[in-house]
Design a protein that fits this description.
Subunit structure: Heterotetramer of two alpha and two beta chains.
Number of domains: 2
CATH architecture of the largest domain: 4-Layer Sandwich
Active site: 195 (nucleophile)
Family: Belongs to the ArgJ family.
Low-confidence stretches: 187-194
CATH superfamily of the largest domain: L-amino peptidase D-ALA esterase/amidase
Pfam family, one: ArgJ
Number of helices: 11
Site (Involved in the stabilization of negative charge on the oxyanion by the formation of the oxyanion hole): 119-120
């Protein structure tokens, strides 16, 4: 499948880029037999960058990872699911450092080149005997085959129903560069990061400053534009690693192939973000809100986020109710400049509001459209040139059921 400037690699994974291996296994942190610890390893020190949750209460692994990334280099990531190691005090920090030390030893890399990530229940100490036992078994599971990538993607899931991964190929300096990603996330998802972990691998040569800037920009147009339930977690983390083994000249914003590379990189982020939104806890539909005609892109982003985060909009979509009043109300309370006389709203191709006036539409057609598994809400403000797109899901009975007993 080809996109502008790049090609989607069906069946590709985080081990497709040159130099990367991965694996995972079940060590006993979860009550089920699903994998709960995994690792990614690069055969060389990789250029690396990360973005983190904006929650004031940040889990211990984030402190450790920030420390490892001071020099912008990583060679491995160790991840556990089933326990967030968040709000666990000094013991939690000691446990995160112990994970880093054990992974470095077992994977044969410098301790300062290991990132640590955790996801799961907040406020419970890790069962370190199980964690360390799992890490000691990782070297036998970490490999460059599709099975290794599969085991890793399974190891990072919590309430997720499906794995999230994507891979593309793009030409840089006449050589093929691969970019891939894997993520987890289903609940406690809200813009400005979410209960999500995401890991990107790439074999391009790229400067650390350029990678960090690109990661921030791509995040703003992907992971920071999704919501499931309006909650932002303590553990969110997105790490990107570039091995440089593709053989291209070092990328930066001045490189002639930068635009194509950045487009491909952003595509991976958006595909993972949409997969998280689609897999929202209890969700039955992916909802996409596109806003155009805003006074600026930032204004369009704020409006799109407000609409996608509205519990009333999400509930109406779940009920397949073409209640555009929920949408226009969310637009109006976003705190952004809007001309109340010039707004158009569509549900897919169905016009329900034109120049802020109701339009007669076929209710049966709207019902059929809203019963689909993807719902697009298009808002044109006719007030400027700003555009943005946000993604989310419907709000269902199952969301309450899942979260009413998440810990117990």
């Amino acid at each position: 499948m080809s996109k502008v400037g790049f090609t989607v690699v069906n069946g590709g994974s985080i081990v497709t880029p040159r130099g990367f291996t991965a694996g995972g296994l079940h060590c006993g942190l979860k009550n089920t037999d699903r994998n709960d610890i995994g690792a990614i390893r690069c055969e060389v020190e990789a250029t690396a960058a990360a973005v983190y949750t904006t929650n004031v209460f940040q889990a211990a692994p984030l402190k450790v990872t920030r420390e490892s990334l001071v020099d912008g280099r990583l060679q491995a990531v160790v991840v556990n699911s089933g326990n967030a190691n968040a709000c666990t005090g000094q013991q939690g920090e000691r446990d995160a450092y112990a994970m880093r030390a054990a992974a470095a030893r077992e994977l044969g890399v410098a301790e300062s080149n290991v990132a640590v990530a955790s996801t799961g229940v907040i406020g419970e100490h890790l069962k370190m005997d199980r964690v360390l036992g799992g890490i000691s078994s990782l070297p036998d599971r970490v490999n460059g085959e599709s099975d290794g990538a599969e085991q890793f993607t399974q190891a990072i899931l919590t309430t997720d129903l499906v794995k999230k991964e994507a891979c593309v190929a793009v030409e840089v300096d006449g050589v093929t560069v691969h970019i891939a990603g894997a993520a987890k996330g289903s609940g406690m998802i809200h813009p400005n990061m979410a209960t999500m972990l995401a890991f990107m691998t790439c074999d391009a040569a790229i400067g650390q400053a350029a990678l960090h800037q690109l990661l921030k920009q791509a995040t703003d147009n992907s992971f920071n534009m999704i919501t499931v339930d309006g909650d932002t977690s303590t553990n969110d983390m997105l790490i990107a690693m570039a091995s440089g083994l593709a053989g291209n000249r070092e990328l930066d914003a001045g490189h002639p192939d930068w635009e194509a590379f950045a487009e491909a990189f952003t595509y991976i982020c958006q595909e993972l973000a949409k997969a998280i939104a689609r897999d929202g806890e209890g969700a039955t539909k992916l909802v996409e809100v596109s806003v155009s005609g805003a006074v600026s892109d930032a204004s369009a982003q704020a409006i799109a986020k407000t609409v996608i985060g509205s519990s009333l909009v999400k509930s109406a979509v779940f009920g397949a109710d073409a209640n555009w009043g929920r949408i226009i109300a969310a637009v109006g309370r976003a705190g952004e400049p809007v001309n109340p006389d010039t707004v158009d709203i569509r549900l897919g191709d169905i016009i329900v509001l034109s120049q802020s006036s109701p339009v007669a539409f076929d209710e049966a057609e709207a019902l059929s459209y809203l019963r689909g598994d993807t719902v697009r809400i298009i808002v044109d403000l006719h007030h400027g040139n700003g555009t943005a797109t946000a993604w989310g899901c419907d709000l269902t009975y199952d969301y309450v059921r899942i979260n009413a007993a998440y810990r117990t």
